[in-house]
Design a protein that fits this description.
Elements lengths: L7 E2 L2 E2 L8 E5 L4 H12 L3 E6 L2 H13 L3 E6 L5 H15 L4 E4 L15 H28 L3 E6 L12 H21 L4 E8 L12 H9 L9 H12 L10 E4 L7
Parallel strand pairs: 3-4, 3-6, 4-5, 6-7, 7-8, 8-9
Antiparallel strand pairs: 1-2
Helix pairs in contact: 1-7, 3-4, 4-5
Bound molecules: NADP nicotinamide-adenine-dinucleotide phosphate (NAP).
Length: about 260
């Protein structure tokens, strides 16, 4: 994935917009998290990249450093609340605070109709995709309060707004992320912490690469733009919601879906 270009935006070089800001991206070693981490770094933020996959996280850190940015990797399973607390404390120590969090780590889970879904399969998806976002937020809010405010961007999905067959745990978790985002936005509106969620349509990332070509073509066709999205297209929205340019935006859910939800 190429880094985003650094155009001039409202008279300010995009490469300066997030200078001196400290960002945390979960699942930053691949796909949408990788693109988001690189976009934030390109805009000047120091980026803490957390992932269960340290090969991916270390690769992304190396690419950001090569590009002149600032980044460090942290091993983290977002379904482990204690571990998140330790990583957030380490980030505050390493970088001096926290201003931006992209709660992006997520898994697809087993495909099965609800009546055939196992409690273990359900729990696994909920523990990463919903519990993980809550656990991250509860530690991020403390750190952002100590840093004088911040912006949290939660990675939901179009499936945070509508249903999809054979994915009940994923759909329930992503609807939960949208609701959690709204509740926290109301609570912290006067505390200088904004909270928004993003709803990607189907995006070409390793998460989807397990599907055969003909299935991917079928999935592309259910988007009015008749293609999959790219991680960079999602990262552009994440960057906007993380930056001061979205200073009056909180509690919102923003699709980036090639028109999927318009149908
Ligand atoms: P991806 O390419 O698979 O990247 C996700 C990253 O998160 C991987 O590095 C993965 O590691 C890591 N991860 C998985 N479980 C984790 C955990 N418990 N703790 C920390 N890191 C963990 O997926 P993606 O497509 O970029 O998806 C990112 C987010 O976007 C997810 O929340 C997903 O639900 C959402 N989303 C994706 C799409 C899409 O079409 N791709 C659409 C809508 C929403 P491993 O590779 O080792 O599992």
């Amino acid at each position: 994935m190429e880094h985003l270009a650094s155009p001039i935006f409202r008279g300010v070089l995009m490469s300066e917009v997030l200078i001196r800001k400290i960002a945390f991206v979960t699942g930053g070693g691949s796909g949408i998290g990788e693109a988001s981490a690189k976009a934030l770094a390109d805009a000047g933020a120091s980026v803490a990249i957390a992932d269960v996959d340290m090969v991916g996280a270390d690769r992304v850190v190396a690419e950001i450093l090569e590009n002149g940015g600032i980044a460090k990797s942290y091993k983290l399973d977002v379904s482990d609340d204690l571990a998140i607390g330790a990583v957030i404390a380490a980030i505050e120590k390493d970088f001096g605070g926290l201003h931006i969090a992209v709660n992006n780590a997520g898994i697809g889970g087993d495909l099965a109709p609800t009546g055939e879904q196992t409690p273990a399969g359900w729990r696994k998806v909920i523990s990463v995709n919903l519990d993980g976002v809550f656990y991250c937020m509860r530690h991020e809010i403390g750190a952002m309060t100590r840093s004088g405010g911040g912006s949290i961007v939660n990675m939901a999905s179009i499936l945070g707004e509508v249903g999809f067959a054979n994915s009940s745990a994923y759909v329930a978790a992503k609807h939960g992320v949208v609701g959690l985002t709204k509740a926290a936005a109301i609570e912290y509106g006067t505390a200088g912490i904004r909270v928004n969620s993003v709803g990607p349509g189907f995006i070409s990332t390793p998460l989807l690469k397990i599907l055969p070509e003909e299935a991917l073509a079928g999935i592309a066709a259910i988007h009015p733009m008749n293609r999959l999205g790219t991680s960079a297209e999602v990262a552009a929205l994440v960057l906007f919601l993380a930056s001061p340019d979205s200073s009056f935006i909180t509690g919102g859910y923003y699709p980036v879906d090639g028109g999927y939800l318009a149908k």
